Amino acid sequence: MLGYVDDGVNPSYWTSLSSSVVNDISIPVWTRNNNGTPTAEGFKLNIVDIIDSHILLYMKRIKFLIDGVPRFLGTVDKAQPQKSKRIWEYEILNGFYELTKYKIESSELLASLINTNDPYKFQPYDGQYSNVSVPWLLEVLLIKRGLTCDVSALYLENSDNQILLRTPYTYWLKDIRLDLAMLFILNQPVAVFYTTVDSDNTPGYSFSKNKINAFDLFVLLCAVFSITIRFEATQNYPDGAYILERRKNAQTTSEQYIINQSDIWEHSQNISKIEEVFMPNFEQRATQRANYLSYIIRDLQSWGTVTKGKGRTIQWYDNLIFLMQDKTQSPGITLNMDTDSLSYNDLKSSIYFKEDAYSETETELICPIQDVFFNVKSHFINPRRESSIVKQGVFI
Questions:
Q1: With contact defined as beta carbons under 8 Å apart, do 325 and 331 qualify?
Q2: pLDDT value at residue 372
Q3: pTM of the full predicted structure?
Q4: How many whole angstroms separate alpha carbon 106 and alpha carbon 112?
Q5: Distance between CA 35 and CA 3 in Å, rounded?
């Protein structure tokens, strides 16, 4: 294992940790919840103070290479010197946790989202409206925090990226769009042009407190569309990048891969059983697109299919509606939102919407270091013990 830290100033300047790490660590190369939302799990890191004191004090990011290949990019969440022990103690989180540091608002994202001529990313002339695609939004959310990423796989027209089939048309992930004006007022209980929300000086309203951070939107989109995020080197990004892809066989509930029995060093299993499964509660709230270009504040209404079951309530943001490409028009021109936005019935095959999702059988394996990242709940690498700790199972 090789570890490198930046100096908190120059993001391209890395200093080797060499033998400075003094505690046993397990690096989370891939983690997610049962409902598919990726998590930014981290670990505690202790570094002996034999390297530059400036770096120990100001370092912001840390990168680990396993067998010479970048596998983890982390961000420093907390730092505490222990002078009596001559070490610094750090709490490290996955680098994309940086997205918690800014909100979904026009001042943060508008300039970046419209900075492209690719209609599969941004379409400024969707009738009187404009929109962005889901892959482009995910990419910009990462770029805004200086995180190198590769989302090219999300634009492909292949079985992994099929979202919906409505004969004779197939809708790919790149065909799913968000109205730009609606994006900037996500989680607001009303509809109005986003500059009113940004100014937040309307009597009787407190728009600022309803704004969501970029991390929360990012993980929700990844869960809804079964998208994985991992950090590793590629031919185009030899120093490592966040790779976004849809999970293989995203529509199945089997989340596991096979390890040769002879390679399994330790094995444990937890079996859960729920006798009765209930339909979840799910509701989208929005109004006509034209109302998001108006300075008149309007109430929202239930949108699309509403489910009222006895099961869990599925988290959703007001004004979050997914538009669909009009297959008879040029890229980025969408169908009428009133009749052809993605509904619960279109989305419910995702694990995020599974009724009372849980792990029926969860297995933890300890084995030699694995290169496989897909279809597991978590994958930690312990470089000192040269082992992978993998949790996998069948989720419903």
A1: yes
A2: 66
A3: 0.92
A4: 10
A5: 32
